[in-house]
Amino acid sequence: MEIWVRDGKKPKPHSSLFYELASNSAFIHERTDLWDSVTEASEVRGLKPGKCSLRLKMPPIPRLLIREIVQFFAWIYKEHGTEVAVLLSYNLQKKLYAPVVPEQVTTHGSIHYNLQNITLKDGYLLVGSLHSHCDFGAFHSGIDEHDEADFDGIHVTFGKFSDEKGANSFEASIEAAIRGTRFVLDPVYWLSGVKPAKIIKIKEENDMDLLFTFDDKSRVLPPSYKPDDDWVNKVTAKKRRSRLRFGRRALGKFYESLRDKFGSYNIPKSHQAIDKRDGESLDFQDKDLFWKDTPGFH
Asked: What is the model's pLDDT at position 147?
């Protein structure tokens, strides 16, 4: 069947049936003895189906950088009880990452900063963000997805930082957003030096929390830790206040937004990325140590 590209140059065909490819969608034009119609096309007959995909060409985020950022997040939560953000930049020639802490105003449930005010080192590109969810689960909320809709790159959320003595774990979730399409990534592969720590079963909610820790047994917040003054001075923390997040406690709230939308979720294999719209069910109810049986968690 003929395909007409609406580019403002080619005239509309005179065929009785043809496809139109426009900036907002694909359409079917049909002319019969009874009507002339233009309807949205859910598929193009005669063509094989395609799907979204992503292959990231950057290396995993280095362990020392991950540790520095996680400890900063834990310290901000302990001292101020707020969220905080660090942006991620990357040098293509040197293949190096560099953190960028923006001027920001933070509360227990929000972070406000302006990407237009970010200054990067020469040769570096802005490739993503990392932010914390305080003591709540690490998942990509509707607000996060809205904020990242026009921010192509890797986006990481950390959560479940604890005030309890001896606590040494956190939650982590990582996704990529490219032109509004989101892909789920494996935190164990992309966050170097991070490994699954334990699963906490929530019997009354028939649910689980998946926690992570550092693979070299480093403390999430060592007693001697002192953050970089330049980082701290970029953060204006507002008075601590409580915040409620609604929804079930998911598998570490790993893919909570995905599950809420589609009733399912999937854990990606190693360096692969999974389109969030293609989530598949994963039965984890009877797996005490599910990551040992799941690709990407070795």
From this structure: 77
